[in-house]
């Protein structure tokens, strides 16, 4: 079981930029997808953004115009930036890793609270 290590989050002012990072320690399969999901109050967990090793990205519907993702393959790291934060971005953000056809791995989640 891969233990994803998330960092970032916490209390952020509206209008600022959120930065989250996640690392998958150890070896992971060459074909993989890493990214971020989130659960906001009253909603199901939803995709924010993810990227495979070839650079292909999948965007969620909610914040596609405010997010960017980058990956450092040498460190099994994925970075998320979400700009122009809104109060509705408050929630728990989960790092996500899919290796080939295996079941996905999830981080424990990091709380993001946007204040006005």
Walk me through what this model shows.
The chain contains no helices and 11 strands. With 116 residues, the protein is mainly beta. The protein is globular. The protein has strands at residues 5-8, 10-13, 18-23, 32-39, 46-52, 57-59, 67-72, 77-82, 91-99, 105-106, 110-115. It starts with a strand and ends with a strand. 0% of the residues lie in helices and 53% in strands.
What's the short story on this structure?
The chain is mainly beta and 116 residues long. Helices cover 0% and strands 53% of the residues. The chain has strands at 5-8, 10-13, 18-23, 32-39, 46-52, 57-59, 67-72, 77-82, 91-99, 105-106, 110-115.
Compute the number of helices: 0
Termini, distance in Å?
39 Å
State Rg: 13 Å
Weakly predicted, low-confidence segments: none
H/E element sequence: EEEEEEEEEEE
Oligomer: single chain
Number of strands: 11
Largest beta sheet, briefly?
Answer: 7 strands, mixed
Strand content: over 45%
The coarse silhouette is globular
Would you tell me the structural class of the helices and strands?
mainly beta
Helix content: under 10%
Calculate the mean pLDDT score and round it.
96
């Amino acid at each position: 079981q891969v233990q994803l290590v998330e960092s970032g989050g916490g209390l952020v002012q509206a209008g600022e930029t959120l930065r989250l990072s996640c690392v998958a320690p150890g070896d992971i399969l060459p074909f993989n997808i890493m990214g971020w999901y989130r659960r906001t109050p009253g909603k199901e967990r939803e995709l924010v953004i993810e990227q495979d090793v070839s650079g292909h990205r999948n965007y969620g519907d909610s914040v596609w115009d405010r997010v960017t993702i980058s990956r450092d393959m040498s460190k099994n790291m994925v970075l998320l930036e979400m700009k122009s934060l809104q109060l509705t971005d408050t929630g728990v953000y989960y790092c996500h890793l899919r290796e080939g056809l295996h079941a996905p791995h999830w981080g424990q989640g990091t709380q993001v609270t946007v204040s006005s």
